[in-house]
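A favour, since you know our structure tokens better than I do. Just paste the record in under my message, thanks.
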Amino acid sequence: MSLIAKQRAAGWIFLLPATLMIAIMSFYPMIRAFIISLQTGAGANMRFAEPIFSNYQRIMADKVFQQSIVNTFLYLIIQVPIMLVLAILLAQLLNNKDLKFRGFFRTCVFLPCATSLVSYSLIFRSMFATDGLINSILIKLGILSTGYNFLGNSTSAKIVIIIALIWSCLLYTSPSPRDRQKSRMPSSA
């Protein structure tokens, strides 16, 4: 066996454990979930549905499922473009050498990465409560006369969720200074 053949074999051997783990932990559950979705019954009494896609026909006719699909696409259409534009703008702003309190602002933007989903969902719930920070600011500015229940109305609750998602995902999509530095470096040919 030549040296190149040994190196190739070693590469495949190093890849084998990761490939097996991905197959076992990701692909098998997806395939199994799809097979189960084609079945009816419970526990040991599972059998394939007649016709086989009847579960999918039933769920597509369900009004709650249809509304969840609409909500998902609404979040996708509104949240993703806003998040990407804000991430690029914030990256440019936070990497400005003349910005005062740059470390403080970077910490504020990075905060969602360091906190859990539960933590910042509680923060947003208290911020948008009828006696929360947002209502207090809007009342002091004279925009509102009394507190508004942002989470009690489905439209405003969706807006609050979009704002929370934008804030939580903002740092993940903003290019880091290292990425911009690499893109400015001349490539060696």
